[in-house]
Amino acid sequence: MIAKVVKMQKGMEEMTNEELLVLYQESRDQGIKQELTLRYLYLAKSVAIQMNNLYSDFMQMEDIIHEGVIAIMKGIDRYNPERDSKFETFISRRIRGTVIDLIRKNNWIPRNYHKNRQSIENARQYLYEKQGHIPSDEEIAGYLRMNLRKFKRIQRMSTMMNVLSLDMITRGDENGQAVQVPSDDIEGQPEDIFFKGETVKTLVEAVEKLKEKEKLVISLYYVEELSMTQVAQVLNVSEPRISQIHSEAIRKLKAYMKSHLG
Q: Does residue 25 sit in the same domain as residue 100?
């Protein structure tokens, strides 16, 4: 018996991930599933690192990785090569979706978030008009007499709101049949707003209508997964300016999606 297990393990080591997936779908052998989970563990770690700034205030990276492993195991069972995209892409989306669901369930938006965010945007606009240049985080926080750490936390929340908006636009249910688009108002968000059919196509059309710099910021941030600071370095402009471009692009995308799918 032991010799048979050792022989099977050696056989799996020589097989590609794709071959193991096919073999698992045929046999549903738990040993193969465990091997696949270990091979794709790097994806759970990668997503946990990429999204760390979005959950670090209330969750540990180890917990996120653990949830990612569970998503991988469930994904292995549900993956359909004839319907779904490449497995790595399929499972990465499931892990990201799991993290976003955890963030939403952990009530990470404080009651005064919207008021504070609006105050920041008003202060940013006022200081820009007064000074003639995009104000720094320190200038805005100082004008509002707000602790800089609190200011940056609100900015991270704002970024997460935008991630939720775009991610939920392109995420369907397990059968790829429905997509929900959340509003900025989490408490007043209708849970029965679902879109079917050409949602992704409409999103692509919306992105194409953006200005070139807006498209570039969206691509670098959501596709290449660079941070705001890194995007600012790539485009050789200030981080507040990138944040401004990003916010305007998101506003346009959400308006376009709402007008065409709402």
A: yes
| Mean per-residue pLDDT of the chain | 76
CATH number assigned to the domain comprising residue 91 = 1.10.1740.10
At residue 171, the pLDDT reads: 46
Burial classification of residue 167, based on how many CB atoms lie within 10 Å of its CB (0-12 exposed, 13-18 middle, 19 or more buried): middle
The residue range of the domain holding 2 is: 1-106
How many whole angstroms separate alpha carbon 164 and alpha carbon 13? 39
In a domain, 240, yes or no: yes
pLDDT in tens, 17-63: 888 998 898 899 888 999 999 999 988 888 888 777 767 777 888 88
Asked whether residue 173 is domain-assigned, the answer is: no
Whether residue 193 sits in one domain with residue 126: no
Query: Among candidates 103, 78, 93, 81, which has minimal Cα distance to 44?
Result: 93
What tens digit of pLDDT does each residue of 153-182 get? 787 766 665 555 555 444 444 443 333 334
CATH number at residue 203: 1.10.10.10
Examine the pLDDT at 81 and tell me if it is beyond 90.
no
The amino acid present at 111, given as its one-letter code, is R
What is the H or E stretch that residue 116 is in?
helix 113-131
**What's the Cα-to-Cα distance from 1 to each of 7, 27, 175, 245, 249, rounded to whole Å?**
10, 18, 40, 63, 61
Cα–Cα distance measured from residue 222 to residue 190, given in angstroms and rounded to the nearest whole number = 25
- Average pLDDT (225-253) is 84
How many domains, the chain? 3
Record the pTM. Answer: 0.48
Question: Would you give the DSSP letter of residue 136?
Answer: P
Provide the 3-class DSSP secondary structure of residue 227.
Answer: coil
